[in-house]
């Protein structure tokens, strides 16, 4: 007999699961965020080395591991919670079920991720939509399930093609995905135009700066607890170029970068951490 569906976004309010290890997400996200979604690149051995290397390299920084995060594949989440998470960094998941605990073979609930100590849960990535057929309704349910479990959604927004207006694409995504997000909830918005993902170069710096300013303006109408980062083939020089293109427009400078394959290499990740922190320190951010 199959249990009745229980979508976590419709769950009655109650006590949120306490993390077994890791920590509860803060009421306000760090002002600077540098993260990596490892997709399916990491082996177990690589995952075991990544967190300790990052922590060792940032140990002497005043900021330490604050604002650094990784979203590994499901089986590797405990590895990162025991290393990066215990050292002051944050850990997230690349996906989540819309259902709570129950007879849903192969699914991982937001409640379980919360109990483990995950801070972030990704939703809306173009690869999930392209390869697994996830539509706007499903993405919205995942965002709602994540928020209901007290976790912070990372929504990946942006236009599919370079000819499409970022404002139009992002407005449609916000309308479809954020209806179940409580007012004032934490949210991390990763602006990643699909046409820039997996490419040799990121989107042009002036394009990113304009899009980030647009995203900030639009998300401010929905929640005060949001941060905005850029992803999409982010690499050394990307953040500096966007900050320069933004000029005096503070709202056009992203709060950090979100990497994928480039950040799987720990030396690459650390080079981005140093760049982002240096640029933001020089500008007083």
From TrEMBL:
Its main location: cytoplasm. Pathway: Carbohydrate biosynthesis; gluconeogenesis; Carbohydrate degradation; glycolysis; D-glyceraldehyde 3-phosphate from glycerone phosphate: step 1/1. GO terms for biological process: gluconeogenesis; glyceraldehyde-3-phosphate biosynthetic process; glycerol catabolic process; glycolytic process. Homodimer. It holds the Pfam family TIM. It is found in: Cytoplasm. Signal peptide: none annotated. It is an enzyme of class 5 (isomerase). PANTHER family: TRIOSEPHOSPHATE ISOMERASE. Its EC number is 5.3.1.1. Belongs to the triosephosphate isomerase family. GO terms for cellular component: cytosol. GO terms for molecular function: triose-phosphate isomerase activity. InterPro entries: Aldolase_TIM, TIM_sf, Triosephosphate_isomerase. It comes from Nakamurella flava. This is Triosephosphate isomerase. It catalyses: D-glyceraldehyde 3-phosphate = dihydroxyacetone phosphate.
